[in-house]
Amino acid sequence: MPAKQLEASVRRLPGVAIIDLRGEINATAEAALNAAYAEAEQGDPRAVLLNFVEVDYINSTGIALIVGLLARARSSNRQLRAYGLSDHYVEIFHITRLADFMQVFSDEAAAVAVGES
Amino acid sequence: MSAWLRAFWRALTRRDTGEAPPPPAGQDGPPALDIAPDDPIVAFFLRAPGAVEVDEIELDSPAVRALRAAGIKLVVPLVSQGELIGLLNLGPRLSEQEYSADDRALLNNLATQAAPALRVAQLVRQQQAETQERERLDYEMRVARLIQQTLLPRTSPTLPGWQLARHYQPARAVGGDFYDFIELTDGRLVLIVGDVTDKGVPAALLMATVRSFLRSAAQRLVAPGLVLRRANEHLCGDIPPNMFVTCLYAVLDPESGRLWYANAGHDPPYVRREGQVEELRAIGVPLGLMPDIEYQEHELVLEPGDSVLLYSDGLVEAHNSGREMFGFPRLQAAVARHAEARGQALIDALLADLAGFAGEGWEQEDDITLVVLEREPAAGAPARSRQAGDGAARLAGPWERLAEHRVPSQPGNEHLALRYLGEAVRRLDLPPRDLERLKTAVAEATMNAMEHGNSYRPDAPVLLEVLASPAAVMVRITDRGQGQPLPVLEVPDIEAKLAGLQSPRGWGMFLIERLVDHMRVSSGDERHTVELILYRKGDRYAGETT
Questions:
Q1: Cβ–Cβ of B411/A70 closer than 8 Å?
Q2: CB-nearest partner of B443 from A59, A71, A97
Q3: Domain check: are B170 and B319 in the same one?
Q4: Any idea what the CATH number is for the domain that residue B189 is in?
Q5: pLDDT tens digits for range B424-464
Q6: Across the interface, which of A3, A27, A64 has its CB nearest the CB of B504?
Q7: B90 is in which domain, residue-wise?
Q8: Residue B337: alpha-carbon gap to chain centroid
Q9: pLDDT tens, position by position, A72-114
Q10: Do B15 and B74 sit in the same domain of this protein?
Q11: Is B296 inside any structural domain?
Q12: Which residues pair with residue B247 across a beta bridge?
């Protein structure tokens, strides 16, 4: 039963890059996720936002990939934020303590607005 | 005179066989005549002083009409000890003259002497027939006993950490009890106790049929409910009317102690645990009664020291001289009372109880079969297990099996496991967030099993089992991790991971343990099993917000 391959594309708003994610975040997502993050970093945005609205499955390997992105962001003093997670994955982000190191928002407007004030 | 002799011979032989034999070659005897017991002619003949002209009988009687149709002119009743035992039927005289008074006197005389002789002959024939019937029954009984004794197991399988004892005591008439032990190739053991209605050869033959079918289905199908369903389909249509088979079918995993069972109308087993004895409730229609029957599966984990008694109705339905029945409550109390009696000792104690109850001179009415399965209380059972969380022991109650699937070990197939899980638990109406938690835990455990247990080998599927009790849902995931050590869990620390001191990976077991209420892991020589248990507590998140 093949998994749905992750598609990741990058949008930019003033000061932030948004990675729109579609599909599943699992072992097969590594290349797409890392490439999108590398693209998002170009232009040195102060924050990179992960848009999970169209993500329906994240497994433990996917969590590890997000931890990897978080480490990269922190090493370059960049914020990594997340939005659009389902209640279940918000819980997973709390269980893993990912939520302690990356802010989790319900929608894009909130995620973008937080750094503007 | 030849007509008399033919009639005499006819009367003599008809009484014995109920059917008229053909007349001797070249002779046309009177046709066979059956007289119904309520035909008024019977009373008429008993009152008649002797020979009677058929034309003079004025009765509305089928027998009289038959006599007339057969051309009988004169009938001489043969009466012995007030019972009509035959007739001398005479057609017209060959001389075409009427029967004279002398003829009648001679015939009456003959009847007076012939009747007791005929009666004696009838009794002799009857006795001979009864003797033959007894010999036939004795022979049948020997055949039936031979069939049964040939098919019942001669020894019990030896299972390290377990005791298995059995007792079979046939009734004189040989009932239809049977039991069987089938060792599956994966190390599990099938235990069967059954009872065929009826006795003798028919019961023994049906028992042989059922036994053969169950033996062939056990390795192929494994799931008790499925085996019984197929056996029922096999029997329905072929089984003689008014016959059926009760059967308790159980599969024991000696490593984990899991006893997985389904019941087709057999007396439910008893389980003894810490001195308490409970009936393992499982109901189902006996095999062969009606088609398209589903058999519910149940499950129990036998802990060290637990015993299960499987039995047939010969024990509980035994009567004493006061016609009081031994009964289920007495059996249940006896199993509890003999708490120290284990294995064969428990069987001996129960038989002693039965002997005491039935009293001297008791004649066993039905076969008695007893099978005791016990997990030895000593430490060092082969299974190694670890339980996460507390209170897991109280979840060892009966489980209803909702689904069993084999998931091929290939990347991404955790989604197939999730689809099976979703279908299996749909009717449980779990709160959505509980379902999400369970799904993530199952996905992680399935991935571990496919990758680490089965190395993504296509010939090694992961076994996914979904069970439910009123209090909880259990998902069991088994791979073929051969003797793999239980993993030493390193608690993932995100700060260490972000600092590069831990691998970013390693979240799987951590998530599983936090998403379900209990996790039990057991590992044997050929299998590695993770059990995930989630309580059904309604919506535990009501009013909670993220």
A1: no
A2: A59
A3: yes
A4: 3.60.40.10
A5: 999 898 999 899 999 999 999 999 999 988 989 888 999 99
A6: A64
A7: 2-125
A8: 28
A9: 999 999 999 999 999 999 999 999 999 999 999 999 999 998 8
A10: yes
A11: yes
A12: B194, B264
